[in-house]
Amino acid sequence: MTSPRVLVFDSGIGGLSIAGCIHRALPSVRLVYLADSAGFPYGGQSEAVVVDRSRTLIRQALEDFPCDVVVVACNTASTVVLPALRSMTNIPVIGVVPAIKPAAGVSLNRRIGILATPATVARPYLAGLIDDFASDCLVERIGLPDLVCWIEGQVCGETLPSEALSEGLQPFRDTGVDTVVLGCTHYPLVAPLLKELLPEVKFWVDSGDAIARRVIWLLEQGGYEPDDQAAPERQMPFEQVLFTGRLPAGLEKYLEELGLPAGQLLGNWPAEGRIRSAGSA
Ligand code: DGL
Q1: Residue 126 CB less than 6 A away from ligand 1
Q2: Does the predicted model carry a pTM greater than 0.90?
Q3: Topology of domain 100-206, per CATH?
Q4: Active site residues
Q5: Domain 5-96+209-277 belongs to what topology?
Q6: Less Cβ crowding at N or C end of the chain, within 10 Å?
Q7: Nearest C-alpha to atom 2 of ligand 1 is from which residue?
Q8: Burial code of 229-255, b = ≥16 C-beta within 10 A, e = fewer?
Q9: Distance between Cα 10 and ligand 1 center (Å)
């Protein structure tokens, strides 16, 4: 049986944190990574633009690379695009949203911090999650507009301004949160730095492993039996890495450092003129 193929979509490199969790859980699965770098950052786009770009690009990627599961590895997109995607395809679509429920499950002092993009922080979807799962907690939300850009810059060797980041995190210190939710898929890529800046935080929560478990479950429902013998080092995790903008210099090296080398890297995907609206027949 050919190993299943999973599409992982984000506005940039953040979804690599989710792809890493999927690859470690399922080394034999073929991953196709799609970054809408030409539309990045999604936190600065209107909801309508995010929905339209996500639908159009995912639809086109599925035409070129038929997949068994789609993972929208972007909180900013997932909080608005999932219904539109699910009505567009029969392929299971998994979204990534801030892990409020697990955070409320572990917090001892009932003070939780949520670090996300300004767009995610402002979305009614997040307010709904807090009402449903953390209504007994004091929830401090921080939306840092620049952090995703700083993390993208690291791919090209730029230094992340950790002093400015530390200042931006001050409300968590002031509130005394013992748990922080990483509500943007870029942030686990700099988790060691965040932990260094907030040593008083006891619990760090992100969605990566839960998403990997969900992917396994969906593939098993489709009849796939994971091959435990497939050693990660024998596998090329990414069959394709597609960027809608230019490929960032240093991307190949960055992927290798993450343990996620790619068979093929393509920039400016899809070729100009091939973009069709998701609404068209
Ligand atoms: N990785 C995306 C997220 O999880 C980044 C959003 C952006 O492009 O602003 O929200």
Answers
A1: no
A2: yes
A3: Rossmann fold (3.40.50)
A4: 74, 184
A5: Rossmann fold (3.40.50)
A6: C
A7: 74
A8: eeeeeebebbbbbbbbeebbeebeebb
A9: 7
